[in-house]
Specification:
Number of strands: 5
Shape: globular
Largest sheet: 3 strands, antiparallel
Strand order of the largest sheet: 3-5-4
Structural class: mainly alpha
Order of helices and strands: HHHHHHHEEHHHEEEHHHHHHHHHHHHHH
């Protein structure tokens, strides 16, 4: 049994929080864990004031971290833009609608209630709703010229109007689809009849292609480029192309734009601890600069996911891409600044983070060229280089180079994340050391 005094204290805490200026409430929300955000939203009387100031990317990451089934308070409060972004990311696998995930989202939304169902219907493209429903139901039109008794097979099917009858492709989708259709029918019968007519016509495949195009256009605007554009992050970049620390900032309008920027904090929270990059971020006090870095990290991670063929709908892919991006930026900072945090902060202020990412990848390419030259001198067979260099070289020569740290005792292969990783391989490529291994073979 709950203690009344504890309940009263909780109410007072909530009241004090809601009496704070909105900027302070947003700042507190920004620093909370995803789970704490869900709990806070569930008890506030005016959560929408905060939710409207959260970016779609941040909301998606928060809900994914909590788990959709456990984040109903957050999902209930999502704006149309936030909801559409989540659906664009989650409902598709490559270029095909993911039926189980689509059905799961319909169930979650239908459980929340009719207002959320109608927000979904009014937010998504009609082509997407049609495509989703066609994967879940088959629609048959009753022939008005034939008596209903003669069409007795329709008796076993679901109908809201005695004209359009639905056969569910799976019983597990039945209840959420019924709730969706019932809400649509009561909201706008004309819209409902149009949807049923389209479903009965069997043209959903063509509609799905249109839905995919609208989705791709929206994701492009949110920092997910086409593949040909995304792979530009792997173009070689000379050190001279990196601006000096005392150069003008890359975004001189960041300060003036900061007030209107929605929350986007998760990329900064995922940067590895105790690295020059992390230490540099800790030293940036200007909120506008921190927001700029967060947005550039998020967009870089999006490009990496596209260029590396990772699934944008997977939190593991998102986290892995951010770790790769932050590791590469750290390599570039270590090359040019060593442990000088002040100088590293200057480079971050003066350069778009993609420049630093490409510089680090170029260092890896330089090392790979050295490895290829060494390999040609030893009959071109990686195994001839001996352990552990052979394993490290296999990772370096991969299409997307990785650090094969497992041959040195690490738990598993990983992305390059420090200049020391490159130095480790280079030291093992020393001619004398390799020749000693060669003689032992």
């Amino acid at each position: 049994m709950k203690n009344p005094e504890d309940s009263n204290e909780a109410i007072r805490i909530i009241e004090r929080f809601e009496s704070l200026p909105i900027e302070r409430r947003v700042a507190i929300f920004r620093d909370l864990s995803p789970q704490a955000r869900e709990e806070l939203v569930s008890v506030l009387t005016r959560p929408g004031e905060i939710i409207r100031r959260v970016s779609p990317e941040e909301m998606y990451f928060t809900i994914k971290q909590v788990g959709e089934e456990n984040a109903t308070s957050l999902i209930t409060m999502t704006t149309s833009k936030q909801l559409l972004y989540m659906l664009d990311i989650d409902l598709w696998k490559h270029d095909t609608l993911n039926v189980p995930v689509t059905a799961r989202w319909l169930e979650i939304i239908s459980t929340i209630g009719e207002p959320k169902i109608l927000q979904f219907v009014q937010t998504v493209d009609g082509e997407l709703l049609l495509s989703a429903m066609s994967r879940l139901v088959r629609v048959v039109i009753r022939d008005p010229e034939i008596g209903l008794v003669e069409q007795e097979d329709l008796f076993t099917m679901f109908t809201l109007d005695d004209t359009y009858y639905l056969e569910f492709r799976s019983t597990q989708y039945e209840e959420p689809v019924k709730r969706f259709l019932d809400a649509i029918f009561r909201w706008n019968p004309h819209y409902y009849f149009g949807l049923m007519q389209e479903l009965a016509g069997g043209l959903a495949q063509e509609q799905e292609e249109f839905a995919l195009k609208w989705r791709q256009a929206r994701l492009y605007d949110m920092g997910f480029p086409e593949f040909d554009e995304a792979i530009e992050i792997y173009q070689y970049l000379r050190r001279s192309a990196v601006c000096d620390p005392d150069a003008e900032p890359t975004d001189p309008e960041a300060d003036t734009a900061h007030e209107s920027l929605p929350i986007l904090g998760y990329p900064l929270k995922l940067v590895n601890e105790d690295t020059p990059f992390r230490n540099s971020l800790n030293g940036i006090a200007d909120p506008a600069q921190r927001d700029r870095v967060a947005r550039e990290l998020a967009h870089l991670a999006n490009k990496v996911m596209i260029a590396d063929g990772r699934d944008p709908g997977s939190v593991e892919s998102l986290v892995g891409s951010l770790e790769k991006v932050s590791g590469y930026i750290n390599i570039a900072l270590e090359e040019m600044c060593g442990d000088d945090v002040a100088q590293a902060m200057g480079l971050i202020r003066s350069n778009h983070l993609e420049i630093l990412f490409r510089r680090a990848f170029s260092l890896i390419l330089d090392l790979r060229k050295e490895g290829q030259k060494l390999l040609r001198e030893y009959e071109g067979v990686v195994e001839n280089l001996g352990h552990p260099l052979a394993g490290l070289m296999s990772g370096l020569l991969h299409k997307r180079p990785y650090f094969a740290g497992h041959v040195l005792g690490d738990p598993k292969p990983r992305e390059f994340r420090s200049f020391h990783d490159l130095a480790t391989i280079r030291s093992m490529m020393d001619r004398t050391a390799v020749e000693e291994k060669w003689e032992d073979i």
